[in-house]
Amino acid sequence: MQIEPGTPTDASDPDLGPVERLPLPDADLQLFHQLPLGASTTDLFQALQAETPWREESITLFGKTYLQPRLMAWYGDPDAHYRYSGKTYAPLPWTNLLLKLRDRMQQLAEAPLNSVLLNYYRDGRDSMGLHADDEPELGPAPVIASLSLGEARKLYFRHKRERGREGLDVTLTDGSVLLMRGATQANWKHGIRKLARPCGPRINLTFRQVQHGQA
Ligand SMILES: O=C(O)CCC(=O)C(=O)O
Ligand SMILES: [Fe+2]
């Protein structure tokens, strides 16, 4: 199934803009197509692109180490350590801009969010492999608010165990927020494919709640 920008929406509230519940079974996905953020998406993109100390991280798969095909940064409360691919990352301290965005995402999710992973996809060659955000420190039903800025890219969902299940492709446009909750991470993996065609840069921010004393 494909969800394209401009799909008719369930409801529209001026504080939230058009919002849609996505038809993926055994998941809880809400897409805010153009969430009002109190600043233009162009300004937000440019500030984050310029101010973030972007890093190329490596990942070890079957004993071989590769560079991740994108740039990353991790921010959060001082105790929000995060384990990813066998490594523990200490968070950078919140910037004023990221704190403002965090507060907006908390309000939207009606849940605490003490950290954020930033991913910078420089062009269509950058991508994210299929994964679930199901690390123990995110708890049994992680709440993740994913804000996209810049070039639209497709996020694709595939079932974790049942190969025959129909998946979902959802286009994440500039200024959209995808709320993933409930059993989403328990049942589904997601990723961003490489593109063959030229494509501009994109920044994605996934706000999360890392449980204390777990990492
Ligand atoms: O770039 C995206 O939309 C996906 C990001 C993501 O899945 C993650 O940070 O875990
Ligand atoms: Fe993810």
What does this structure look like?
- This protein is mostly beta strands.
- The protein has one domain (2-9, 17-208): Sandwich (Jelly Rolls).
- The protein contains three helices and 17 strands.
- An eight-stranded antiparallel sheet has the order 2-3-4-15-12-17-10-7.
- It is globular, with a radius of gyration of 16 Å.
- The termini are far apart.
- The model has no long low-confidence stretch (mean pLDDT 92).
- Bound molecules: 2-oxoglutaric acid and fe (ii) ion (FE2).
- One of its GO terms (biological process) is DNA alkylation repair.
- GO terms for molecular function: catalytic activity, acting on DNA; demethylase activity; dioxygenase activity; hydrolase activity; metal ion binding; oxidoreductase activity, acting on paired donors, with incorporation or reduction of molecular oxygen.
- Residues 112-211 form the Fe2OG dioxygenase domain.
Q: What is the overall silhouette?
A: globular
**Biggest sheet, in brief?**
8 strands, antiparallel
Please identify, by name, the CATH architecture. Answer: Sandwich
Tally of contiguous helical segments: 3
Domain unit count: 1
Order of helices and strands: EEEEHEEEEEHEEEEEEHEE
CATH superfamily: Alpha-ketoglutarate-dependent dioxygenase AlkB-like
Order of strands, main sheet, comes to: 2-3-4-15-12-17-10-7
Helical content band: 10-25%
Radius of gyration: 16 Å
Total number of strands = 17
Gap between N and C termini, in Å? 36 Å
Query: If you consult CATH, what is the topology?
Result: Jelly Rolls
What structural class do the secondary elements suggest? mainly beta
CATH first level:
Mainly Beta
